[in-house]
């Protein structure tokens, strides 16, 4: 290699190196394997779409945004270790996760590193309640918010019913069960029974035993506080046992990937909640929401789900706060986010200052009949909205929040 060629090569290498060094990095925790891998794919798709859009319009503070991503396998320990990796790589923010345990563990690690952590698919009240802190924000709704909209709908349309609960025995499962029992008046466990499945791998006979108990309970409403593979396997048994013929099935947190995986025939007529559906922007005439849906369809030939929408919104909102403050400093960005209201993919949402919960409209939805779904061009128009509640009505009040927190009445 000649001297001139070598010098040119070294200069090019330096330029490339400097270009990468100038990228502003953010980290995505997502389950690429394990119980919630389908939700993980949705998270990554939404995040990449946001990063691409931001970079096409000049990046953040004039620099390209770069997405780093690491698999969590839906394990809290891995999620926390990933935050260490993102910090070492120079990330300025971390987001994601598919369980509340991930959000709590990763959020605490991010706090130690001085990084903001935005939780997705983390519904336990504890996330922004007992375990909330200044560096943790939650875009997804809480168990309390899902329970409020469900209980209002059920009290109007199915009053004085007998409930039976099957939960996964983790922070979200317990949180959702306790809140829904409270809001539906089903706290009497002698009348409204339950079964708890273990975290981790669940055996077929454990699913079967829980559903046999439900079948023998004379309940009118069966609440499955489950997600991912746990929900798919339970719903397959519910369908084969014919339980939907004599019970209304409630799945408190529904997502596009849940229905896709279990199948629309198995899931039809199930009632749950969603914070967003792909057709909401058209119904509410939200232009930026319509553009997001159109871009997602063009990219993936399918509708976006609420999981992709959550990841997309987080990246866009963080980038917007950085632009408004002209700073990557976490403290400055926190101040810019607190009590900031915006409309991006739906009607007005607010990052509430006292608990960092995203306050937004929440919807009770019913899975449409399979025949109706199959008529849709993408065969993914899964949900009919059957009830809506404003975010301020659905979210716990500051007094409720302080009661849960005990002595720690402010985020630290």
Automatic annotation (TrEMBL):
Belongs to the leucine-binding protein family. It comes from the Bacteria. InterPro entries: BCAA_transport, Leu-bd, Peripla_BP_I. It comes from Ectopseudomonas mendocina. The keyword Signal applies. Residues 393-412 are annotated as: Disordered. Residues 402-412 have a biased composition (Basic and acidic residues). This is ABC transporter substrate-binding protein. The keyword Nucleotidyltransferase does not apply. It holds the Pfam family Peripla_BP_6. Keywords: Signal. Residues 24-369 form the Leucine-binding protein domain.
């Amino acid at each position: 290699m000649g001297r001139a060629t070598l010098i040119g090569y070294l200069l090019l290498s330096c330029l490339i190196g400097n270009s990468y060094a100038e990228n502003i990095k953010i980290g995505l925790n997502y389950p690429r394997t394990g119980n919630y891998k389908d939700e993980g794919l949705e998270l990554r798709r939404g995040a990449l779409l946001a990063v691409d859009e931001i970079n096409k319009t000049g990046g953040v503070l004039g620099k390209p945004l770069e997405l780093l991503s690491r698999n969590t396998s839906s394990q809290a320990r891995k999620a926390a270790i990933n935050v260490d990796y993102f910090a070492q790589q120079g990330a300025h923010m971390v987001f994601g996760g598919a369980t509340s345990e991930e959000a709590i563990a990763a959020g605490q690690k991010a706090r130690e590193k001085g990084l903001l952590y935005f939780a997705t698919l983390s519904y336990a009240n504890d996330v922004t309640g007992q375990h909330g802190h200044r560096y943790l924000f939650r875009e997804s709704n809480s168990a309390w918010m899902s329970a409020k909209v469900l209980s209002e709908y059920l009290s109007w349309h199915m009053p004085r019913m007998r409930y039976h609960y099957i939960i996964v025995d983790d922070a979200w499962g317990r949180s959702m069960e306790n809140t829904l029992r409270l809001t539906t008046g089903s706290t009497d466990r002698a009348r409204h029974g339950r079964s708890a499945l273990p975290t981790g791998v669940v055996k077929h006979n454990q699913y079967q035993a829980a559903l046999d108990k439900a079948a023998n309970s004379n309940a009118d409403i069966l609440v499955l506080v489950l997600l991912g593979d746990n929900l798919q396997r339970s719903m397959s048994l519910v369908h084969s046992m014919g339980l939907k013929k004599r019970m209304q099935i409630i799945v408190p947190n529904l997502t596009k990937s849940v229905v896709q995986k279990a199948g629309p025939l198995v899931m039809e007529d199930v009632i749950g909640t969603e914070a967003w559906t792909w057709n909401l922007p058209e119904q509410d005439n939200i232009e930026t929401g319509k553009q997001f849906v159109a871009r997602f369809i063009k990219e993936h030939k399918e509708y976006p789900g609420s999981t992709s929408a959550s990841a997309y919104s987080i990246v866009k909102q963080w980038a917007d706060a950085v632009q408004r403050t002209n700073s990557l400093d976490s403290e400055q960005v926190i101040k810019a986010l607190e009590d900031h209201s915006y409309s991006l993919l739906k009607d007005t949402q607010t990052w509430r200052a006292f608990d960092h919960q995203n306050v937004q409209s929440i919807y009770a939805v019913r899975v449409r009949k399979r025949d109706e779904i199959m008529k849709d061009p993408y065969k993914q128009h899964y949900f009919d909205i059957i009830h809506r509640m404003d975010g301020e009505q659905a979210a716990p009040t500051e007094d409720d929040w302080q009661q849960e927190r005990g002595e720690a009445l402010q985020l630290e």
